Write a sequence for this structure.
């Protein structure tokens, strides 16, 4: 929640519940994308 609120803000801009759900899904997808970009590639050595 800390990372979500830091990057996306602590309030939702949508007023309708269905639109709020969509907004949260998009924001979570964005956070997952950031995480994937920052993770190093791991592979087994010998």
């Amino acid at each position: 929640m800390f990372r979500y609120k830091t990057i996306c803000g602590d309030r939702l801009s949508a007023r309708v519940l269905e639109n709020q759900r969509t907004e949260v899904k998009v924001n979570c997808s964005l956070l997952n994308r950031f995480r994937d970009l920052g993770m190093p590639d791991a592979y087994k050595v010998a």
In short: The first helix runs from residue 2 to 8. DSSP finds two helices and no strands in the chain.
